[in-house]
Amino acid sequence: MRASEIMTSPAVATTPDTPVREAVALLIERGFAGLPVVDTEGKVVGTFTEFDALRRAWSGGNGIMVGELMTTPVEVVSPKTDVAEIGRRMLGDRLRCLPVVEEGVLVGVVSRRDLLRPLVRPDDTVAAHVHNLLSDYAGHRPRWSVSVDGGYVQISGEYRDEAERRVLDALARTVPGVVAVVLTGRKPAKT
């Protein structure tokens, strides 16, 4: 698998003459760990990361521009770079994202999240969401197990009564990607 298959494109970037406050707002708004910094031709000249933003927070003063705090030199990869190599570089250098350039121009970004995404099937994501909803409902006490295959959710375990069974079914159906819900299990024995 290559960078071009997992990268986020088009990339969101900033420029050296962007005020730091604007770049920080973009980091927060988009949930990014870092932004490529590009010149007027779209060539990557640095990165602006959460770390760089935190340095600004403690340095004081307004009117600071991204170019004053950005990290240089910047590591980049090509669209043809193997994802295993990207993973090694990110782990070895503790990078949170790598700009992807073609002929020197920014074409995308690979983040840690992009590297993880191929490891998770859509069913895994659905199962995690259903499990979290049921865990919240149960007060974070493990009461049910969840499995998903092709969007078909199976919830196993004990339930108090038919009303609770309907609640579990309704909660699971709120998760995007759920095709159908099957509840297996029984009411607990009365003592």
From TrEMBL:
A Pfam family that the UniProt record links to this protein: CBS
Signal peptide stretch: none
All copies of domain CBS, residue ranges: 7-64, 70-125
InterPro entries cross-referenced by the UniProt entry: CBS_dom, CBS_dom_sf, Diverse_CBS-Domain
Keyword Cell cycle part of the UniProt annotation: no
Keywords recorded for this protein, A-Z: CBS domain
Record's protein name: CBS domain-containing protein
